[in-house]
Amino acid sequence: MLYCEKCKKEVVIVGEGSLAGMDEEEETWISNMKEKGKLLLFDPPHSSAYLCPKCGGELIEKD
Questions:
Q1: CA 1 vs CA 9, 13, 22, 63: distances in Å
Q2: What is the span of the domain harbouring residue 27?
Q3: Secondary structure string (H, E, C) spanning 31-42
Q4: Is the pTM here over 0.90, yes or no?
Q5: Is residue 9 within 8 Å of residue 37, measured between CB atoms?
Q6: Contact 1, 32 (CB under 8 A)
Q7: Domain count across the chain
Q8: How many other CB atoms are found less than 10 A from the CB of residue 58?
Q9: Which of 34, 30, 35 is nearest to 14 (CA)?
Q10: 39 and 11 in contact (C-beta within 8 Å)?
Q11: pLDDT tens track of the chain, all 63 residues?
C-alpha cells in the first residue's frame, strides 16, 4: 500500500482502463474511497516516484 507521511493518508493508484465501462459504479467506488479517507492517484507515470495527489510529496510503501 502507498502512503503519504505528510497527509497521513493511504493512496490508491487507479490505472487507465481499470474503471472502464463502470460509469455509475466508478462514481460510487470513488465516493467510497474518499469516505474512507483514501487519496486517489489517477494514471501516474511509471518512470518516476509516485507523488501524493494532494501535497506532491513522495509516497512510501507501507504494509
A1: 11, 9, 24, 6
A2: 2-61
A3: HHHHHCCCEEEE
A4: no
A5: yes
A6: no
A7: 1
A8: 14
A9: 30
A10: yes
A11: 899 999 999 999 987 766 666 677 888 888 999 999 999 998 888 878 999 999 999 999 987
